Amino acid sequence: MNISIRAMHMDRTPQLDTYIEKKVQILEKYVKDVKQITVELIGDVHHKKGDVIQVEMTLRLLEVGSPLLRAEETASDIHEAIDTVVATMKKNIATYKGKKSTVKKDLVRTVRGK
């Protein structure tokens, strides 16, 4: 699994990289065939909320024809944004795996003629 981290309009520290890698490696428990994970950190100033951090995560699987799984979250704290984007990605993986197993079951039903 290849983890790519990009930061725009903010400073990237080794501690932040370690924190992101630790959180992203949790996703390996849910899906094994991960080709690449891209994490983008974007710092911005909102006119009402003040400083906000947007975290975008893209997960690319090894399987041919599999969709890109994306999640993005915005929060005032970097750690909170990373935690929520990882939780959202877990939900996306569960949805993808559910759709994948449903397609396999439907294929078996059509082959058997039921």
List the SSEs and their pairings.
Layout: E1 2-8, H1 14-25, E2 34-46, E3 50-61, E4 69-75, H2 78-112
Parallel strand pairs: 1-2
Antiparallel strand pairs: 2-3, 3-4
Helix pairs in contact: 1-2
Give a description of the structure:
- The chain is α+β, with helices and mostly antiparallel strands.
- It has a single domain (2-112), classed as Double Stranded RNA Binding Domain, CATH 3.30.160.
- 41% of the residues lie in helices and 34% in strands.
- The chain is built from two helices and four strands; from the N terminus they run βαβββα.
- It has helices spanning 14-25, 78-112; strands at residues 2-8, 34-46, 50-61, 69-75.
- Strands 1-2-3-4 form a four-stranded mixed β-sheet, covered by helices on one side.
- α1 links the parallel β1 and β2.
- The longest helix is centred in the last third of the chain and has 35 residues, at 78-112.
- It is elongated.
- The termini are far apart.
- 14% of the residues are buried.
Question: Short summary of the structure?
Answer:
By secondary structure, this protein is of the alpha+beta class. The protein has helices spanning about 15-25, 80-110, and strands at about 1-10, 35-45, 50-60, 70-75. The protein has a four-stranded mixed β-sheet with strand order 1-2-3-4, with helices on one face.
Strand content: 25-35%
Quote the average pLDDT.
87
Distance from N terminus to C terminus (CA atoms, Å) equals 40 Å
Radius of gyration: 17 Å
**Total count of helical runs of at least 4 residues:** 2
What CATH architecture label applies? 2-Layer Sandwich
Question: What strand order characterises the main sheet?
Answer: 1-2-3-4
Mind describing the biggest β-sheet?
4 strands, mixed
Order of helices and strands: EHEEEH
Q: Quickly name the level 1 CATH class.
A: Alpha Beta
Fill in the CATH topology: Double Stranded RNA Binding Domain
